[in-house]
Specification:
- With 135 residues, the protein is of the alpha+beta class.
- The chain has one domain.
- It is built from five helices and four strands, in the order H-H-E-E-H-E-E-H-H.
- The chain has a two-stranded antiparallel ribbon.
- The mean pLDDT is 83.
Length: 135
């Protein structure tokens, strides 16, 4: 029974792949080898998605934190899709001063910084919130 109930999360993952935002319905592949390669890429994408979601949910539980869901209610179990949507419309600004180029991520709000901190230092570095990339 437990295995049957766990099947739901796998089905939810494949529903994510079938979503129009993933653009699989507009992809036409003729050769079987290319279809196999696309399925492999999609499977790996789903794996990364699931790992990121689990990492964030574990961090939220460990730190006893929440983020707001689509209805504005606190949740400890957000979907990674919702988190990705929260990070839409971020821009990277390249500033050249003399011979030095620096980068700054625009439109970051406290909720984004909170999510990045929960995900870990590596993610904060990507968005230049901690030393390293872009500074």
């Amino acid at each position: 029974m437990r295995e049957y109930k766990q099947q739901q999360s796998v089905e939810r993952g494949f529903r994510f792949i079938k979503d129009p935002m993933f653009f699989t319905n507009s992809t036409f592949l003729k050769k079987p080898q290319r279809i196999v390669r696309l399925v492999m890429v999609m499977g790996l994408s789903l794996l990364v998605y699931a790992i990121a979601q689990r990492k964030l949910r574990n961090a939220l539980a460990e730190m006893d934190e929440t983020v707001l869901d689509q209805l504005g209610k606190p949740t400890k179990n957000p979907t990674m899709r919702w988190i990705f949507q929260k990070f839409e419309n971020k821009s990277l600004l390249n500033v050249t001063d003399g011979g030095t180029v620096s980068q700054q991520v625009l439109n970051l709000k406290p909720v984004h910084e909170k999510i990045l901190a929960l995900m870990g230092e590596e993610y904060e570095k990507i968005y230049s919130l901690r030393g390293g990339c872009g500074k």
